[in-house]
Amino acid sequence: MLQSLHIQNYAIIDKLTIRFSDQLNIITGETGAGKSILMGALSLILGERADTSALRDPGQKCYIEGVFSVAGKPEISRFLREHDLEEEAELVVRREIAASGKSRAFINDTPATVQQLREIASLLVDLHQQFDTLELGNAGFQRTVLDALANQLPLLQQYRQLYGQWQKTQATLKALQEQKAGFHKELDYNQFLFDELSEACFKDNELEDLDKELQALSHAEEIKTLLSKVSFDLKESDAPVITIVRQLANQLQQYQQHHSLLPALAGRLQSVYIELQDIASEAGSMGDTMVSDSKRLEDVNERIALGYRLLKKHGLQTTGELLALQAELGQKLQSVLEIDDAIASQEAAVAQLLKQATALAQQLSKARLAQAPELERKVNGLLAQIGMPNARLKVSITLSALQADGTDVIEFLFDANKSNRFEPIRKVASGGELSRLMLCIKSLVAQSIDLPTLIFDEIDTGISGEAAKQVGIIMQQLGKGRQIICITHQPQIAGKANAHYFVYKETNGDKVTTGIRELSKEERILAIARMLSGEQPTQAALENAREMVVQ
């Protein structure tokens, strides 16, 4: 539910905040007052493209924020978790447009992409405007409507799980069959490669360790000489470093009582003396153990040469990769022996899943075929009720191969003028017809599907009188279970509101701004009376308006 909408520096809006009812919200106002601007601002936080031309003050940032109540909405919680966004009972969606044209989006104060806005918007708001035909003409939406009215959504979910398992099992079977064909082509070659690696018998990190040993063996004499020099220079030369350090330490100790910092300095020199003694001893010991071993050097070179040849042959870099290749080849050779059993097992699984999925698809198809005439009857009745007595909806169901939603291809066909020429909705229905048809359909499925906030932008074009009244009644009933926001010019619809908002223009100096405020009951009566008879409503119009509001 959209709790509030805050808009700042957008088009001719300076700053305004709207707090909505959780039922039927009606927005009215004179033509050009800014009702469409409100929808434009809302569209920005729903992921529409930003445009700096919409900034009222080009030197200031445009700021639009929607606060939604999302408690008990598992799909939204899932979306937030998947995108590492913070979960709260309230969801805050914000869009900012800088004067430079740069746009930023936030979900619960965390930066988000425009694509993420669009994805979450589909879970929060269903914005239907004139000529917005995409959803109603969408095969997925049409199937959902039919399945919802037939109470088949749980069965459909069960079917989809089976269908998904069947597809995965089929893919595994195909991979096994292709693997078997490849195995027989490559069996001898794989055996040769495996034997070659097994004979080499490398251990983990062996080549890397041998390379280090080779470096040590190749420079054994130089290292031995250097270590001896280190030991000699530190403690046996004409001016041993160790002796010099010890003498300096002793000299400092003689004067340490004369300066507060000398004891610490003397201590540090003493530590250096001890460390240098240790270094000299260790260097001497290491030098004594260094031996030039030509036989070991030859063996290491041969071993490394073998390893590098195999690495180059297989395009690898490390001993670990060679061992992984050996294990992989071993598994392939073993798999040749096991693959026929695996294929037989997978074929049985595919057949079983196909049988189960087909049975569920047939149940779905039967329920859809039974529900289609009922859907047609209810929708056509509602169409007549709202001023479209000649319009007819027809549900076409044709069989297809097994697919993600069953074996049915579902399409809503439409005839606006009793011509008996039914065509796909997207091809023949006008904007006003589509809007009212969508209202009828959604009013039927509202109890079966957890619809988001429904927003209807001027769907009442071309109707008046009793038809407009019936549209209002449908919206009023629909609003009892979910939030509806409707922009309308029809008093019959405005009279059904749980909350009525009036959009107006006002002039401040040389600037024109748009404002909006919620009307009290008496203000509503006056506003509706003006919709009926003009700026100076008659007494009859006022009485008529009062009756509309009281109903």
Automatic annotation (TrEMBL):
Keyword DNA damage carried by entry: yes
GO molecular function, one term: ATP binding
One of the record's GO cellular component terms: bacterial nucleoid
Segments forming domain RecF/RecN/SMC N-terminal: 2-509
Pfam families in UniProt: SMC_N
Keyword Nucleotide-binding: yes
Name of the molecule in the record: DNA repair protein RecN
